[in-house]
């Protein structure tokens, strides 16, 4: 018997339950981001590199596709370059992701049940969407784009309108322009469309899928051509950062990845454990029928199962060194899967105890986060740059040294992307950053203009991109950011190469 590819929309629910779950998730995201913005002495390197690249709108950058940087450039045009810019973008992206996750849950999970609300409350407890919500990087935009694409696909499957399929393609293209990892969840959605009969169904539906693929390719094509013209820079970066592992190392790395993912999910499992204590021993929902159950199963295979299996194959068969942050998108729909499984149990999880448990965990986490910054003992055990690096102090001292040497404005900082970027962002001047003194990484910087206007050069060993010899070095002791270097310090040096010509005006 053929499974119907459409899903019944849930009944409209009156009162707070319609809006409270996504509002709760959005508010927790905002709370974590505001906390980080208020107490962090610095930001993660991933956020800082977006500032570095946003000086120029390119079709691609040496590490990643361009969409997150375009959004950063737009935000800077609207509100200026400040440390708060990245925090605001992170909050908006993850709040949007929470809303899209809610809409997906309403369409996939049992109609009229508390399962969608449970899913979104659990989603808010994932560490990537709580204490790491402050980070604005390619994963931040990716999870939003994928959530929006999945929601749009569910709408298009039901409406069968070409316009909706075109939106699916636009969002898939946006996901690809965020991070190449988007290929995996896109393949997962195509797998679902095949399994539920859309690719074998009416011609109009097949045309819709074809239109979505065409639009996605059209959106991605300019970046692809740019990447080919520039020697596939993202692939070259990937080869350097993800070396091939031996067979025993692959197993160890995979187990380490699973352990980290379990750690990231522990807060939601803890809240769920508390809620189970208050569960009611009666069936949670009426049966939705075998057809709908089979349909939802196929969707979760595409959203969770396929990405998980692909990632496992990449590690165990391909030998790629797995990074823990790859799991953020791979696991982003796990809260929905958990909520669906809960809805099939012979007891009912009450929403209020779950919300109170989640809120208590968020507050406890925020307290521990603040303590890790304020406690000298805790500081000695940290290597997290956002909580230990004295960005404002370093930027103020470097800018003061520049202003002592010349009355010209600071236009360029040369050095490692993180340290140079911190000076750029936290000094308030927002000069361009020549990453590692490499013009290939910052091709919008003109060598002659840099030599004419001078630069502040920073690093543990000062690079020399054709500048005159620095007259004087300045230094500052900063926390070491190396893995396993908790509590250690390193010396950071900078020097001023003044402009060759008088300042205009």
UniProtKB/TrEMBL annotation:
Keyword set, alphabetical order: Cell membrane, Glycosyltransferase, Membrane, Transferase, Transmembrane, Transmembrane helix
Listed InterPro entries: LipidA_mod_glycosyltrf_83, RgtA/B/C-like
GO MF: pentosyltransferase activity
Keyword Aminoacyl-tRNA synthetase: no
Family matches, as Pfam families: PMT_2 (PF13231)
Gene Ontology biological process terms from the UniProt entry: lipopolysaccharide biosynthetic process
Transmembrane segments: 70-99, 140-157, 163-196, 208-228, 262-279, 299-319, 325-342, 354-370
GO cellular component: plasma membrane
Localisation: Cell membrane
Name of the protein: Glycosyltransferase family 39 protein
Native species: Variovorax terrae
Origin organism lineage: Bacteria, Pseudomonadati, Pseudomonadota, Betaproteobacteria, Burkholderiales
């Amino acid at each position: 018997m053929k499974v119907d590819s459409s899903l019944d929309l849930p009944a409209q629910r009156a009162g707070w339950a319609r809006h409270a779950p996504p509002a709760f998730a959005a508010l927790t995201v905002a709370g974590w981001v505001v906390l980080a913005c208020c107490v962090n002495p610095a930001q993660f390197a991933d956020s800082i590199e977006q500032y570095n690249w946003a000086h120029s709108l390119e079709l691609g950058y040496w590490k990643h596709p361009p969409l997150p940087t375009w959004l950063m450039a737009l935000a800077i045009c609207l509100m200026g370059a400040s440390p708060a810019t990245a925090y605001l973008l992170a909050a908006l992206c993850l709040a949007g992701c929470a809303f899209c996750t809610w809409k997906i849950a309403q369409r996939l999970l049992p109609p009229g049940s508390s399962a969608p609300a449970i899913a979104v409350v659990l989603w808010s407890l994932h560490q990537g969407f709580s204490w790491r919500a402050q980070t604005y990087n390619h994963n931040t935009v990716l999870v939003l784009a994928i959530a929006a694409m999945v929601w749009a696909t569910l709408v298009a499957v039901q409406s069968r309108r070409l316009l909706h399929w075109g939106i699916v393609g636009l969002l898939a293209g946006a996901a690809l322009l965020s991070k190449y990892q988007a290929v995996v969840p896109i393949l997962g959605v195509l797998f679902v469309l095949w399994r539920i009969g859309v690719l074998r169904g009416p011609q109009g539906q097949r045309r819709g899928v074809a239109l979505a693929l065409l639009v996605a390719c059209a959106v991605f094509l300019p970046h692809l051509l740019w990447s080919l013209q520039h020697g596939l820079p993202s692939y070259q970066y990937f080869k350097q950062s993800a070396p091939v592992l031996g067979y025993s190392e692959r197993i160890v790395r995979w187990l380490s990845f699973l352990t980290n993912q379990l750690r990231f999910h522990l807060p939601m499992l803890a809240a769920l454990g508390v809620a189970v204590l208050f569960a009611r021993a009666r069936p949670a929902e009426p049966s939705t029928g075998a057809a709908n159950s089979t349909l939802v199963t196929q969707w979760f295979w595409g959203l969770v199962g396929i990405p998980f299996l692909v990632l496992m194959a990449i590690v165990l068969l391909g030998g790629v060194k797995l990074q823990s942050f790859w799991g953020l998108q791979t696991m982003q729909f796990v809260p929905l899967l958990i909520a669906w499984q809960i809805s099939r149990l012979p007891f009912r999880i009450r929403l209020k105890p779950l919300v109170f448990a989640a809120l208590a965990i968020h507050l406890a986490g925020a307290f521990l986060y603040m303590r890790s910054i304020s406690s000298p003992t805790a500081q000695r055990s940290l290597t997290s740059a956002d909580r230990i690096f004295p960005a404002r102090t370093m930027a103020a001292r470097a800018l003061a040294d520049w202003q002592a040497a010349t009355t010209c404005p600071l236009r360029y900082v040369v050095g490692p992307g993180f340290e140079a970027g911190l000076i750029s962002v936290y000094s308030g001047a927002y000069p361009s950053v020549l990453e590692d003194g490499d013009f290939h990484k910052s091709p919008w910087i003109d060598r002659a203009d840099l030599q004419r206007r001078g630069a502040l050069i920073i690093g543990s060993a000062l690079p020399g991109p054709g500048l005159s010899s620095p007259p004087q070095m300045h230094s500052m002791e900063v926390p070491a950011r190396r893995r396993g270097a908790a509590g250690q310090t390193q010396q950071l040096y900078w020097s001023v190469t003044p402009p060759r010509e008088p300042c205009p005006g």
